[in-house]
């Protein structure tokens, strides 16, 4: 008995039988998808796997243009608004985000353009596959093609498991200029490697990621291709695929475990539970018993094998939860503070790390750095790049499609529901922009085109939007005008920055062990606290209210993994900004010099005591324990006496610089809110006056797609 997603469709439209007369047409219409899928390992080795899927949608888009009448699924309004927000967010690339490293707007264009291209490509897949005639682009052909992607993913996982150090220099990598080739983002896209090295278990482990860029991407793709594989390769009529499918599923278990992807494990468990519940509700108890038995046997085999240790060790090391939650909090906080309506267009590097303002990755500890804001979860990326409003439109589209297919009336609708379940889980933990999102769109397109009444026509939507165009233009311009007024009222702000190289405090010796006492309590972060301490601020303003205002205008940063501290003071007066920054640096150095002098006296007193003890023990001839020798203690005393007593030095004097004008935030936000108000008002007027509106929520009669 084969395992499928649903063996008892309630709708009268199951998958159609193969049509011999349509085979040639099917091959011609599906050639972009066929070339992409069947040659995917080749694209990966060549370094093209991140770009060929986007290029494959170009002939699909041309086909759509030639199609004439293009239908849109219900909920397309929300996706269309999300795309508008996405394009508008490109104007935010030059805006600094709170808590992020400032500057670098032009350098973000490449990442932004890549993200936009993927979203547009996914949109094309949804519309092309949803509008394709069943006789020309058959559902079972698409299922089997995407089932091949599951096979490639499993084989890549096995490669990463057994040959984890496999990597090659791709043809694209060799053709790129040196500067672009060494870019971390580009390197992740064009350099094929079988696995990713990690140390979060306390020792070196390799997580398979071939044929994709990251281990989490491997997990997301595996889960989303699995329903296509089950429905396309395990059902009756699949031929030789039905014989091979159980072997592939068994082999998949090994890289699934070694991937250590908890999100993947959770998604697979939730999917199995969903299918069991659906079968139970339909009274399909034979399948429920079969699946439950298979899961129990698999669990027992896993428990008795060495793989159980990998799973238990991964579940016991969940330190990434804190890291993810703090990044999530910073991402959302930065968006709400800086640009809640339209976001920032692209990700931003975090200033410092969660542990220290001077934190950063090192060759010995790559994980010591913090991932950029807007990563570690697709949802957080959407919030950060398109704002809270854009993220709401993004989610509303998928909620609307889930509402259309949750009843699982056909096997394809069941497939779409399971994939949406996987996507909903992984949206919080994986960056699913790319092939995972394209796969979700393909599933939604197949389920949508089974229902001829679930949508409207693009020409109908364009006509209704033309009717609302005057109102849309007027309110959009008005919103932008309000934004311009708000921006004009913002004062000019100047920032003065001064950088200091700190002198390290002297160290003492532990008389009991003879080792150095490290100044673990003295860090760059404690020095930053000293800058805004009352003792330092008293030199500038002795009033409590004045010191509070000073603290609000001061920002302390540090170069990663160094003792270089940067003090920034912002003011609407350029001269005051420079003067206060210099006074802060001078006041801090004075306060630190007082501390170092006190510390020096304490260390010398400690060493003097150790010297007397060493002399007494040496005179008594007591060698019962390895204490400090007189010679060694004297050497430390000489070092402390010769050490500099200066607190540090200024390596860059304060100079006021006008901060970039961030008028784009209120202007673009105002324009988009005006656009949204126009669409809402037109919809309301259409109800009041019973006339066509600019919004396209209602279906229009269109010719049904022909079916065999």
Q: Indicate the low-confidence ranges by residue numbers.
A: 6-25, 509-516, 693-708
Query: What is the typical, i.e. mean, pLDDT?
Result: 82
Beta percentage is 5-15%
- Give the biggest beta sheet: 5 strands, antiparallel
Helix and strand layout, with pairings?
Elements: H1 23-29, H2 31-38, H3 40-46, H4 52-67, E1 71-73, H5 76-88, H6 109-131, H7 139-162, H8 171-175, H9 178-181, H10 184-190, E2 195-198, E3 205-208, H11 215-233, H12 240-258, H13 262-281, H14 285-304, H15 307-316, H16 320-338, H17 378-405, H18 411-426, H19 435-448, E4 455-457, H20 458-488, E5 494-502, E6 508-509, E7 516-517, H21 524-531, H22 534-537, H23 544-553, E8 554-558, E9 564-571, H24 574-620, H25 630-642, E10 648-652, E11 656-658, H26 664-689
Antiparallel strand pairs: 1-4, 2-3, 5-9, 5-10, 5-11, 6-7, 8-9
């Amino acid at each position: 008995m084969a395992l499928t997603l649903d063996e008892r469709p309630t709708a009268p439209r199951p998958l159609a039988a193969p049509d011999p007369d349509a085979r040639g047409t099917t091959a011609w219409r599906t050639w972009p998808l066929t070339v992409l899928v069947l040659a995917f390992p080749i694209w990966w080795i060549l370094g093209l796997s991140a770009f060929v899927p986007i290029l494959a949608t170009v002939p699909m888009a041309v086909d759509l243009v030639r199609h004439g009448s293009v239908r849109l699924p219900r909920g397309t309004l929300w996706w269309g608004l999300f795309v508008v927000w996405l394009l508008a967010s490109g104007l935010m690339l030059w805006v600094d985000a709170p808590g992020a490293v400032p500057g670098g707007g032009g350098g973000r264009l490449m990442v932004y353009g890549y993200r936009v291209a993927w979203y547009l490509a996914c949109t094309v897949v949804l519309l092309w596959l949803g509008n394709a005639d069943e006789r020309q682009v058959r559902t079972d052909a698409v299922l089997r093609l995407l089932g091949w992607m599951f096979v490639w993913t499993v084989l890549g996982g096995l490669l990463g498991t057994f040959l984890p150090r496999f990597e090659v220099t791709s043809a694209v990598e060799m053709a790129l200029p040196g500067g672009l080739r060494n870019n971390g983002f580009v390197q992740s896209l064009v350099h094929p490697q079988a696995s990713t090295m990690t140390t979060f278990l306390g020792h070196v482990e390799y997580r398979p990621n071939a044929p994709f860029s990251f281990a989490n991407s491997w997990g997301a793709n595996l889960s989303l291709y699995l329903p296509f594989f089950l429905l396309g390769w395990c059902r009756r009529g699949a031929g030789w695929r039905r014989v091979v499918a159980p072997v592939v599923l068994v082999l998949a278990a090994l890289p699934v475990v070694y991937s250590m992807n908890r999100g993947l494990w959770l998604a697979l468990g939730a999917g199995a539970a969903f299918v069991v519940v659906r079968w139970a509700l339909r009274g399909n108890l034979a399948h429920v018993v079969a699946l439950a038995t298979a899961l129990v046997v698999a669990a027992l085999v896993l428990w008795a094998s060495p793989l159980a240790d990998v799973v238990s060790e991964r579940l016991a090391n969940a330190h990434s939860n804190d890291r993810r939650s703090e990044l999530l909090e910073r991402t959302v906080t930065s968006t709400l503070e800086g640009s809640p309506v339209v976001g920032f267009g692209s990700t931003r590097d975090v200033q410092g790390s969660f542990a220290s303002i001077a934190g950063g990755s090192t060759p010995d500890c790559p994980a010591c750095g913090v991932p950029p804001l807007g990563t570690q979860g697709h949802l957080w990326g959407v919030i950060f790049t398109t704002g809270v409003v854009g993220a709401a439109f993004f989610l509303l589209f998928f909620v609307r499609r889930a509402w259309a297919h949750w009843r699982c009336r056909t096997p394809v609708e069941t497939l779409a529901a399971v994939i949406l379940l996987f996507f909903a889980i992984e949206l919080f933990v994986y960056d699913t922009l790319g092939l995972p999102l394209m796969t979700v769109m393909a599933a939604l397109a197949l389920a949508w085109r089974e229902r001829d009444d679930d949508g409207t026509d693009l020409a109908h939507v364009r006509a209704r939007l033309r009717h609302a165009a005057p109102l849309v233009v007027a309110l959009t311009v008005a919103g932008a005008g309000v934004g311009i007024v708000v921006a004009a009222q913002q004062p000019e702000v100047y920032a003065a920055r001064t950088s200091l190289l700190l002198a390290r405090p002297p160290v003492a010796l532990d008389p009991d062990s003879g080792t150095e006492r490290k100044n673990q309590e003295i860090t760059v972060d404690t020095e930053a606290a000293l800058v805004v301490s009352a003792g330092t601020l008293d030199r500038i303003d002795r009033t409590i209210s004045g010191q509070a205002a000073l603290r609000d205008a001061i920002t302390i940063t540090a170069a990663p993994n160094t003792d270089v501290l940067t003090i920034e003071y912002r003011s609407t007066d350029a001269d005051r900004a420079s003067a206060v920054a210099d006074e802060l640096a001078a006041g801090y150095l004075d306060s630190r010099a007082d501390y170092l002098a006190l510390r020096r006296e304490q260390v010398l007193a400690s060493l003097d005591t150790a010297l007397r003890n060493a002399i007494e023990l040496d005179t008594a001839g007591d060698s019962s324990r390895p204490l400090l020798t007189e010679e060694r203690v004297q050497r430390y005393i000489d070092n402390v006496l010769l050490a500099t007593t200066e607190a540090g030095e200024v390596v860059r004097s304060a100079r006021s610089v006008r901060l970039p004008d961030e008028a784009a935030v209120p202007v673009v936000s105002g324009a988009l809110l005006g656009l949204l108000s126009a669409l809402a008002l037109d919809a309301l007027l259409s109800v009041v006056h019973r006339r066509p509106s600019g919004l396209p929520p209602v279906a229009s009669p269109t010719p049904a797609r022909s079916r065999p």
